Amino acid sequence: MKQKSSALTRLTCLVAALCGLFAVTSCKKAPDGLVLMTDPSYTATVFASNKIGFGAPDGILWNRGKLYLADEGRGALAVWSTNDGMRELVDAQFGIDTPEDLVIDAEGNIFFSDDAAGGVWEVDSAGKQHLLAGKDKGLYSTEGIALAPDGSILVGDADQHQIFRVTKAGEVSVFLGREFGITKPESMTFDDKGNLYIADNEDNVLYLLDKNHQLHRVVDRRDYFSPETIFFANGSLYITDSNAGKLYIYTPNEELKPIATFSGQLGNIQGVTVDEHGEIYVSVQSDLKKNIGYIIKIGKEEPLPVAIRN
Amino acid sequence: MVLIDGLAMSALFAEVVGQLTALNDQIFSHVNGLAGRSWLFDNLVALSQENDLIKAGIIGCCFFAAWFSGKTADEIRAHRKTLMITLVAAVCVLAATKVISRSVPLPRPVIKSQKIYHLTGDDLVEMNRTHVRVPLDETSQKEHRDLLKGDVNTNDLKSFPSDHAGFFLAISLGIFFASRRIGALALVWTVLVILGGKLITGAHTPLDIGASAAIAVSVLMIFRFAARSRLGHLLDKVSSLTLRHSALSSAILFAVVFEIASTLFHVRHFLALLVAARRYLMFG
Prior knowledge:
The complex is a heterodimer of chains A (310) and B (284).
Chain A: H1 2-26, E1 33-37, E2 42-49, E3 57-63, E4 66-71, E5 76-81, E6 85-90, E7 99-104, E8 110-114, E9 120-123, E10 129-133, E11 142-147, E12 153-157, E13 162-166, E14 172-176, E15 185-190, E16 196-200, E17 205-209, E18 215-219, E19 229-233, E20 236-241, E21 246-250, E22 256-264, E23 269-274, E24 280-287, E25 292-300, H2 306-309
Antiparallel strand pairs in A: 1-22, 2-25, 3-4, 4-5, 5-6, 7-8, 8-9, 9-10, 11-12, 12-13, 13-14, 15-16, 16-17, 17-18, 19-20, 20-21, 21-22, 23-24, 24-25
Chain B: H1 2-32, H2 39-50, H3 52-68, H4 73-103, H5 109-112, E1 116-120, E2 123-126, H6 138-149, H7 163-178, H8 180-200, H9 206-229, H10 232-244, H11 246-261, H12 265-283
Helix pairs in contact in B: 2-8, 3-4, 3-7, 3-8, 3-11, 4-7, 4-9, 4-10, 7-8, 7-9, 10-11
């Protein structure tokens, strides 16, 4: 009898302790995603969520008032505009798998990479889709993509550790071979002077290839720095780091400066683009398998009117 | 009727949460208010947080003393059983607090003094900023300068619950169960020096520590309950072995206490290396 009552007391204590644990840990139930503005002159808002019809986007690009998305979660390339809403341009039925990054030329032709299906894919200005150059031409796992000044497309391959040049006729040649030592050309962009920036998120290096074809390490061996996507606009380079959940701005001859740190549900930031008003947009893959993602808009805080400031 | 009951319960819950949050802020503000006033005091507090010998060495010594305490063989065996179960529970507490902190991203108060947005539904809402006094010691000042420059350690964005608080509370409480006098010293040291320091420096709020304490007590209770029923036989055997092979058990105990003093830093480092090696072997 005494033994029974002792066991009952222990069980009661155990249940009470578990209830206490539940109460204390749930009373501070927190937000699942945070954005810390390391530069307080910026503000953050959710520009779009899955409700508008995308999955988990990777590369994003603003072009002529429309937002283009390489939707890795859904295996589709999509475009969003205020008037037309979300519209898929290419889907998985066409043979693409995990679209990674995209560029648009002056004629409105879209070119995108796909790290699982490989190749460079094109949706022309009339909406016609085709594989410009595929695995048969040696493009196995395409990552970063950039539009060269001569009109050709540069695409990085993670499997082969090289950057290839693809002409609009679909001819493929090596642009930067293995001897340059780039392990994973995850993202690429040209600046306004014709230099090519290359983000390697395997070796965690930001490279700059000047017009003389000389490769320089711009940001290297910095703690917690792993460039995922880079985008050049208004004289600065915007960089997302999915490992540390950070958005940086890099201006040549200046220090790498963090703008915001993302964490929790918003920690896995991927693509970055800037619209015509200078607002920054960042794609977030909250859950790639469950297709949960966000587009976060980072804008400059409006200065307070003089009367309020005083 | 059920709906009204439900509404009343949720209103009550919201009220309790509101009161707790207010209390949490009040306590934090008072304790953190001690920082930034005296260079000497702030440096002593910083020493207690950074120096393993001062922070955790005392707890390790208490563990060592409790291991060898007891007048009879049966008493020593009983103490050792308690301490062994405490160790397992403390590791589980560390793991549980780490897992929870990953799913509940709440920044340290010192980070919450900056502009932060949190995701509520499909909106980003700016959080209320916490006023934090920065201690005058060199490390705190450097970290604050780094924060203003935008260098934030991602670990600082996940401070709820406190893993250190949970770990040391579990160990101290376990020592207390084994030996009241030594355990009381360990508990006082944990509460006043280790946890008090965390509040003063703005590393944690009372709720972070309260949640860790709840986890520590719960996990320790579960293991003690299991030790009395299912694990009792195994613990009896192991504790007898420690008496029979006292030289070997002392050597192992040294390694254990060494790790307690560093909050399992070396073990965690080793495990991380194993995970990296596994990933390297599997994926190249």
